[in-house]
Structures are given as C-alpha cells and as structure tokens.
Specification:
Length: 414
C-alpha cells in the first residue's frame, strides 16, 4: 500500500455494493469508507510515531458525527474553526483537550465555550484577537493556552482561493510583527504562550513550500528563544494534497520525515492538521443520470446531483474523476455532467468520456472532503444522505433532508 492516497478507496472496489446502496437509499448520496478513513489517519500517526505529536483532523473537511467518532476512537485530536465544529467534536466523543481552535474571527462566546471545555490551544490570528482572548480568559478566571498563527509569506502553488500563506491573504500574523505580538502575549496574564502555528494552503502537491515555511518558522522560534520566550509546540497546519487526477503528492511518511529532518534536535512537539488527506479519498458522491440530451454538437448527462451537493467543480474548477458505477461495454462519448440547478456553473465535470444511459449511476470520486460540508440548500434542494461502509455493512450516518425541514424556523407575517 505504498501510494494509498492515490488509490481507489475500498468501497469503490465493491461496485455492486455501491449500486445496491444507491438503489436502496436513493441518490444523490455520499458514501464513506471507515477502513479508508482509519488507514489515512494512521498513516499520519505512524509517520511521526517516535516524535511527540498530535494529529488534529481538520473538522471542516468532513464533520459528520460518525466520521469524527471513528477518528476520535483512534485517539485523534481535532482542528476546529467554530463553536459549531467544537460542539460536533464533543457530540462525537472527541477529547476537548486535544482540540486546536483556528480561524480569523472567533467570537467571544466561542472563546468562552472553548475555555470552559479546556481545549489544547487557541491558534490566534491577530493582535486584536489576542487582547480579546486575554479579557475573556481573565473574566472566566482561566488562562488560555495560545499559539500565534504566523503568515510565512510563501507561495503554496495551489488554487488562489485555497492559498492562505501569502502576505495578501487574510490569515495569520505578518512575520515582521510576530516577535512584538509574541512579547505582548507573553506579558498578558490571561494567556500562556505554547506554540507557533502556520497553514499555507490546501491541496499542496509539492513538499518545497512546506519546507520553506518551516525554515522561516524555525528561525522565528530560535529568535523567540533568544528573547526568553519558550515555544513548546509547532503546529504545521494541514494542506497535504491528494490525487484527484494524476497528481503525485508526497505521502505522509515522506512529508513527515522531511519536516522532522528540518526540525533537527529541537525539543518541539509537532501538531498536524490534515483534513483532505484523510477524508477526500475515503468518500464518493453517487448520482443518477436523469436525462441525456444534445444541444447542437454538445452532449449533456443531466444528473440528480448538483453544485449545491458538491460545489468544488463550480467554485474552484476542481477536477474530480467521474466513473459509471457499473461499466457498460461499447462506445463512449464526451459529456458535460450537469445538475438540475439553474446556473450555467452547475456542473460536476466537463468533457468526460462516458458510456451511459438514463438511469445509470455515476460516482464522483475523491468526494469525502469538502463535499457534504460545503453543501447548501440552493434551489430548495434537500441535502443528500450520507452512508458509511464498515466491513460488509453500510450505515446511514445522516438521513436525506426532508423537504419540510427546509423552511424550519421561517415565519410568515401576521
Ligand atoms: C487552519 C487550517 N488547518 C487545516 C486545514 C486543513 O487543510 P487540508 O484539508 O488541506 O489538510 C485548513 C484548510 O485549508 C485550515 O485552514
Ligand atoms: N474547500 C476547499 C479547501 C479549503 C480549505 C480550507 N482552509 C476545497 O474544497 O478544496
């Protein structure tokens, strides 16, 4: 299993099971594999096994309670960005003392909740947030563990919308200001400085940007030590890419080995925040062909899944493999695979060679991360059901939303 992140997940190998599940539960449908989730999480954990570390799965990638629970049972920590994600972690049986809280806009009530639960660390992203957190902690009679998220100004070489480590991005504290803000954090009585943090972007397929960022961060850690500010952990963020098409991102062991080598003999605990690398290739999105149609010389496969279910193709022009769940023999044609939403940008894939007929099921691969979590009710479409395959059993881990749930909480005027 050398290149497991590139490989078909276990569940897709069982094509018939996918077709049966689609028939039984209807489409559109997300299906995840427990075995794949576990294997991916362990790959990170094993990659740094000897060195003190914490794997904090990035909840935003896939926040289904069953997914979080599977990882919590392995001993995972969690990277959260909202009170909602923290509540999910707790509901799923996650350990709050292994939670790191990222994000540029934490509210006072979110800070209070996280302090009361005793999370591992706040990844603070600005001087203003630092002052606010200090006040909240003092009011509660607590000391908030903090690390500062530093923007190392490196080009992650990924899509501009998911690149976060450049000066012009809203994330983190500029390197030039880092030492002054650390000094300030160190003197505030409601805070305890624990670490430094960076996260330069998502879907990185090269190791170099990670190492460039690490070099700058380690230099900062050394300068802080000279000022008497002792850093105990280095949170390297997430961002390791996966294979959607033919990308060959470094595997977790190669990635971790490179980071550990750079770390040298520094006594620093490492925190990892992988999201996509754990969840993306542990899930597929299954949709059924409603109609085939041709406009002049263009062929369309109109499917029942749409941009509200899986927005990555529309939002980032992301390419995800689309395959028939059961292959047909015979000639294939080039199709745009499009959904029922009233937007020209509503497509799952363009110019795909497919041999399909109405009623066939298609699987959009690598959909376990940033799939369901980015779904919406646009066009008043109920969100899809989610299943998890565990061995030879499949469980409904979230029921398909009912249409009547769509206007819950709305009121008409008297
Ligand atoms: C702070 C932070 N940590 C971790 C992640 C997870 O990233 P990925 O899914 O690319 O591993 C993200 C998302 O990019 C993030 O913003
Ligand atoms: N949602 C993005 C990743 C964003 C990462 C969040 N910081 C994607 O689907 O690729």
């Amino acid at each position: 299993m050398d290149h497991f992140l590139y490989q078909a997940d276990e569940l897709y190998a069982e094509q018939c099971q996918v077709a049966e599940l689609a028939k039984q539960h209807g489409t559109p449908l997300y299906i995840y594999s427990r075995a794949t989730l576990e294997r991916h999480w362990r790959a990170f954990d094993n990659a740094v096994s000897e060195h003190p570390h914490l794997i904090c799965y990035a909840v935003k990638a896939n926040s289904n309670i069953a997914v979080l629970n599977v990882l919590a049972r392995l001993g995972s920590g969690f990277d959260i960005v909202s009170g909602g994600e923290l509540s999910r972690v707790i509901e799923a049986g996650g350990d709050p003392t292994k939670v790191v809280f990222s994000g540029v806009g934490k509210t006072v009530s979110e800070m209070e909740m996280a302090l009361n639960l005793g999370i591992y660390c706040f990844n603070v992203e600005s001087a203003a947030e630092l002052e606010q957190l200090n006040l909240v902690a003092l009011r509660l009679g607590k000391v908030a563990p903090v690390s500062l998220r530093i923007n190392p100004d490196v080009d992650a070489g990924t899509h501009p919308y998911i690149s976060t480590g450049l000066k012009e991005n809203k994330f983190g504290i500029a390197m030039e200001e880092a030492e002054a803000i650390f000094a300030r954090a160190n003197e505030l009585p409601g805070l305890a400085v624990k670490g430094v943090d960076c996260h330069i972007g998502s879907q990185l397929t090269e190791i170099k940007p990670f190492l460039d960022a690490m070099d700058r961060m380690l230099a900062l850690i050394d300068r802080l030590a000279e000022q008497g500010i002792e850093i105990k952990h280095f949170d390297v963020g997430g961002g390791l890419g996966v294979t959607y098409d033919d990308e060959q991102p470094p595997q977790p062991d190669v990635y971790a080995a490179a980071l550990l080598e750079r770390l040298g003999d520094r006594d620093l605990k490492l925190i990892f925040e992988p999201g996509r690398a754990i969840a993306a290739n542990a899930g597929i999105f299954v949709t059924q062909v409603l109609y085939l149609k041709e406009n002049s010389d263009k062929r369309f496969a109109l499917v029942d899944g749409a941009m509200n279910d899986l927005i990555r193709p529309s939002l980032y022009s992301a390419w995800q493999k689309i395959v028939p769940v059961i292959e047909r023999a015979g000639e294939s044609h080039s199709y745009d695979v499009v959904g029922p939403v009233c937007e020209t940008g509503d497509f799952l894939g363009k110019d795909r060679q497919l041999n399909v007929q109405e009623g066939d099921y298609l699987a959009v691969r690598s959909s376990g991360a940033y799939g369901f979590t980015m779904a919406s009710n646009y066009n008043s479409r109920p969100r899809a059901a989610e299943l998890m395959v565990d061995g030879d059993k499949a469980y409904v881990i979230r029921e398909r939303e009912k249409v009547a749930q769509l206007w819950q909480g709305e009121q008409i005027l008297p």
